[in-house]
Amino acid sequence: MRTFLALGILAGICLWGALRTPRAELHLRVLRTALFAGAGVFGALLVSAMLQALFLSE
Helix 2-20 crosses helix 26-56 at what angle (to 10 degrees)? Predict the structure, then answer.
C-alpha cells in the first residue's frame, strides 16, 4: 500500500510541476517535458505495481 501511495504522490508532484511551469524559454520547455516524462514513468510504475498486486495476491 505504501508503494501505491508513494508512486501516486511522485506522479502527482511531477504532473503538478509540469502544469505549473511556464513555456516561455527553452530551458523551461525542457524542464516541463522532463516533468511530464517523469509523471508518465511514475504512472506506469504505479499501474504495474497495481496489476502485479492484483494478479500475484493469493
Answer: 160
Grid cell of 18 as nine digits: 509540469
Q: How far is the C-alpha of 37 from the C-alpha of 24, rounded, in Å?
A: 19
pLDDT tens-place string over residues 17-55: 999 999 889 999 999 999 999 999 999 999 999 999 999
Termini Cα distance of the chain: 16
Burial 32-54 (b: 16+ CB within 10 A, else e): beebbebbeebbeebeeeeeeee
DSSP-derived secondary structure letter, 6:
H
